[in-house]
What we know:
With 60 residues, the protein is an all-alpha fold. It is built from four helices and no strands.
Amino acid sequence: MRDGGIILHPDDVDAWVQAIETADRAGLGPKALAGAAPLVRPCLPELAGAGLIPAAAAAG
């Protein structure tokens, strides 16, 4: 996962459980948000323009 540097065989369930249970989760939420932020764009005006949502919803 990302910078973790862990390679596990996809069929080794015990290794996956161990890796997940012992992963350092401190700051994981902020790191995920920082990684996702550049991939997100405002889409409400686009949806309103396509008539999928009311224009008032896009203005809010």
